[in-house]
Each structure stands twice: as C-alpha cells, then as structure tokens.
Design goal:
The chain has 416 residues and is of the alpha+beta class. It has four domains: 1-138, Beta Polymerase, domain 2 (2-Layer Sandwich); 145-230, Hydrophobic Seed Protein (Orthogonal Bundle); 232-360, no CATH class; 364-414, no CATH class. Helices cover 54% and strands 11% of the residues. It is built from 22 helices and twelve strands. The strands form three sheets. It has an eight-stranded mixed β-sheet with strand order 1-10-9-2-3-6-5-4. It has a two-stranded antiparallel sheet with strand order 7-8. Strand 4 and strand 5 form a beta hairpin. It is elongated. The mean pLDDT is 95. It binds adenosine-5'-triphosphate (ATP) and magnesium ion (MG). The site of magnesium ion (MG) has 3 residues, from loops. GO terms for molecular function: metal ion binding; nucleotide binding; nucleotidyltransferase activity; tRNA binding. Residues 269-411 form the CCA-adding enzyme C-terminal domain. Keywords: Magnesium, Metal-binding, Nucleotide-binding, Nucleotidyltransferase, RNA-binding, Transferase, tRNA processing. Residues 175-235 form the tRNA nucleotidyltransferase/poly(A) polymerase RNA and SrmB- binding domain.
C-alpha cells in the first residue's frame, strides 16, 4: 500500500491527542473532511480522528471527554486549545437498509476507510508520521476533480440514500464532475431518497445552502432528478425561472441562511409551510421563511411615492424590510436587470430606508392609541377593535400627522 510523505497543517492539539493514543499502541489517523480540505489547500478546525482504541479506552485516556455518539463509537476529546475533537473507533458496517447502519468496531484503518462514501472522503493522514494513506486514490480524484464512490456505486447508494444528497453537495461544493458509474448509480438511487427522514434532508439542504457552490449543487439536484423527487413544485419551474433563482441565490450571503431558503422556497407560495414542516424545520424557522417569501411577493413601491412606501413597510413589516430589500436586489441580479432598473431598485430601497429611519408610523404598535384607549371610550373588546385600529393605521399611513391621541380617538369615535 502506497504511503507518501507530505505535511498537512494539523493543529498541535490534534497531534497531541494522536501521540497519546499511539504511545499506548493504538493506531490513530486523521480522516474525513479536514484531510480532504487540507489537501485542497483550505484549512478547517474540525479535525476528526479514527483510532483502533475503543471508546471506553479513549474516555479513560482523556479527561474531560464527552460521549458524542457512543453508539457509533465517537468520543469528544477536549484538546489543549480548548476545542473538542471527535475521536471515533474504526468501524465497519454489518447491516444497512438505506437509512440506518448497524456498525461494529473494526480492527484496521482500511476497513474503516472502505465504509466511507466517496474516495475524496476516504483519505487518511497520520499526524505524527505525516503519511497519507489513500487506498482508493482519493487524491488523484481530487486532482482530477472527480467524485467517485468507494467500491460499487449502486451498492453504496442503496446502503444509505443520504449519499445521493451528500454526493451532489460535494460535487457542487468543490466543482467536481461525477464519474460515470457513480452518476448512473446515483440517478438510479434517487427514488430511494424519499425514504429519508425530513431531518436528514433538511440538514443536507442547509449544508448545501451554507456552502460555496450552492447553485451548482442545486443544479445537480435538478439534473439528477432529486429535485423532482423531493420538491416536485420546484422542479416544475421552467429553465429560465430556475436559472434566475440560482443566480439570485449565488448573489445572496450564505449567512443567515434564511435568505437563501426564502428565495428557494418562495415559488411554493402557500404550500411552502407544509413542505418546510415536512422537513422538520422549527416553527420559528417556518415562520421566518414563509414571511420572507410573502414579503418578496410584495412589489416594491415607486421611489417617489412615500405613502406607497409606508404601505409596503406595513405589509412587509419593518422587521423584515432589510431582508426583503436584500432579496429583491438578489432577484434583480438573477434577472440580469438593466442598469436603469438597478438604479430604480436602489432608489426604492433608499426611500424605504428613509421612512424607516424617520420612524413614520407603519405598524399597529406605532399608533398613538391602543385597545385600552378604545375600552376607555366604552367600546367592547372584540373583532371591532382590530377593524378600528386598522382603519386608524390606514389614516396615519396616508397622513402621519394624524398620529396623535386626540385625533385618533376622534376618528375611532366616528367609526362606532
Ligand atoms: P463536511 O463536514 O464538510 O460536510 P465531511 O467529509 O467532514 O464534510 P461529515 O458528514 O462530517 O462530512 O463526515 C465525516 C466523514 O465521515 C466523511 O468524510 C466520510 O468519510 C464519512 N461519512 C459521513 N457520512 C457518511 C455516509 N453517509 N456514508 C459513508 N461515509 C460517511
Ligand atoms: Mg465534517
């Protein structure tokens, strides 16, 4: 087996953990994403170790240590830099059903690498000896920019359909071409992904949206048939509209991810809520994304119409105004808007921000009166309250100088 020297930039704390295990005779290697990314020239902090030591041994050797996924043999070890590193006992799969795996501890690194999904994820690096152990030629695939399964692709996807999503994510993230046999097996496995839990799909989708290359990964979702399988409503967008969305997503920041989520799911309209809930997004996240989607459907006011500006802010709410402006700008970018259109958008945004800064009343809570005042007028609390306060807000939006208690009480009285 070929082993070549080449020093990667491993944190000193990881070297130290490795040394302690190796000194006791337990083979220990750095594996996974950090090795892959280091070989690509980008560094990250989450180095994972694979070791011959059992979790019990690891827990005894390192205090404090934390049971992160003891069922899977993973122990969290705090390094002297204060970070927690995952140390996982060599494993092999003994049973898989497309969604879960039953694993047992393995004796060798090679067995452990053989259960990993793609060759680029199956490269091990020895932090003390600076050796690379790469039985599946992951490095040459990295160089050739190729995504390739470890072992028989059809079998590997059927073992765990999440690998379909992972593969497309890695291909998008690193601009990889999917090797032919891997692509054939992947597209054939797409129907199996419907058996994945909403949580796992959500976690993958978030990782896609938070990473560089998100548009490329989403395009692969579409080309592979995964989009049609998981989000048929999005697959129905025509090529032009889909391309526009992808360019808009590319224009948006990766963080906060709600912006990209909102733009992606906005075409679902009313059904977005159902789809997001199926993916087990929290209620707060569902609300954020659907409200942003609704805000995005609210056309921006003409820049010279300050009343329309206040009406827009009322509909969108000041809370979502900045996000909505950002999304509108991204969509214009996606559409490849003409220069004068861009200028108009900027003017519209500037006007809306002016209104916000001036603090013009645009929400019920900005009104100089509230429900208590209506009670004092002798009105019975009920649906009428909302109607009256809404009407007051209508008036105040047309003319903010009306936003004084006497004027509004007068108005309220007239309405009863
Ligand atoms: P990133 O953290 O950037 O998403 P990663 O490669 O670190 O990428 P993880 O999900 O953190 O991915 O997993 C760490 C490693 O574990 C992977 O590199 C891969 O070797 C292995 N792995 C993870 N999930 C699977 C899976 N579903 N099937 C096979 N191997 C997997
Ligand atoms: Mg990782």
């Amino acid at each position: 087996m070929e082993e070549r020297k080449s020093a990667l930039d491993v944190p000193a704390a990881v070297v130290e953990i490795t040394r302690r295990l190796e000194e006791r005779g337990y083979a220990t290697w750095a594996v996974g994403g950090a090795v892959r990314d280091a070989l690509l020239g980008s560094s990250r902090t989450d180095w994972d170790l694979a070791t011959a030591a059992t979790p019990e041994t690891v827990r005894k050797l390192f205090r404090p240590s934390y049971p992160i996924g003891l069922r899977f043999g993973t122990v969290g070890v705090r390094g002297r830099d204060g970070l927690v590193y995952e140390v996982t006992t060599f494993r092999r799969d003994i049973e898989t059903d497309g969604r879960h795996a039953v694993v047992e501890y393995a004796d060798t690194l090679d067995e452990d690498l053989a259960r990993r999904d793609f060759t680029i994820n199956a490269i091990a690096y020895h932090p003390l000896r600076h050796e690379i152990h790469d039985p599946f030629d992951g490095r040459s695939d990295l160089q050739r920019r190729l995504l390739r399964c470890v072992g028989d692709p059809a079998r590997r996807f059927a073992e765990d359909y999440l690998r379909v999503l992972r593969g497309l994510r890695f291909a998008g993230r690193y601009g990889l071409e999917v090797e032919t046999a891997t692509w054939t097996a992947l597209t054939t496995a797409v129907p199996g992904t419907s058996r994945l839990s909403g949580e796992r799909v959500r976690e993958e989708l978030i990782k896609v949206l938070e990473a560089p290359g998100a548009p490329a990964a989403l395009e692969l979702y579409r080309r592979s048939g995964l989009l049609a399988e998981l989000f048929p409503e999005l697959d129905r967008l025509d090529n032009e509209e889909w391309g526009r969305r992808l360019r808009a997503i590319a224009d948006l920041p990766r963080d906060p991810v709600r912006l990209r989520l909102a733009l992606l799911f906005e075409p679902l309209g009313e059904t977005a809520e159902e789809t997001l809930s199926r993916l087990r997004f929290s209620n707060a996240e569902v609300r954020d994304v659907t409200e942003l989607g609704a805000a995005l459907r609210e056309p921006l006011p003409p820049p010279d119409d300050v009343k329309a500006g206040r009406r827009w802010l009322r509909a969108v709410t000041p809370e979502w105004a900045e996000d909505a402006l950002r999304l509108q700008a991204a969509l214009a970018e996606g559409w490849d808007a003409e220069e004068d259109e861009r200028r108009r958008l900027e003017a519209q945004a500037a006007r809306v921000r002016e209104i916000l800064e001036r603090g013009d009343p645009v929400t019920l809570s900005d009104l100089a009166i509230d429900g208590n005042d209506l009670k004092e007028l002798g009105l019975e609390p009920g649906p009428d309250f909302g109607r009256i306060l809404d009407a007051c807000l209508d008036a105040v939006i047309e003319d903010p100088s009306l936003n004084r208690r006497p004027a509004l009480l007068e108005l309220a009285r007239e309405m009863t």
